[in-house]
Amino acid sequence: MVGRDHPWSISHRHYSHLLGVFPLALINPEVPGDSPLIQTSLQTWERDPSAFRGYSFTGAASMYAMLGEGDSAVVRLHRFLDFPKYNEPNTFYAEAGPVIETPLSAATSVQDLMLQSWGGALRVFPAIPDAWREADFDQLRGQGAFLVSAVRHGGRTAWVKVRSLAGEPCHLVVRDWSRAVVRSHTGPVPTVRAEGDGHFSIDLAKGASVVLAPDASTRLPSIAPVPEAPGTRSYYPDWTRTGAQH
Question: Hey, which bits of the chain come out as E strands?
Answer without folding.
Answer: 115-118, 121-124, 135-142, 146-153, 156-164, 170-173, 181-186, 192-196, 199-202, 209-213
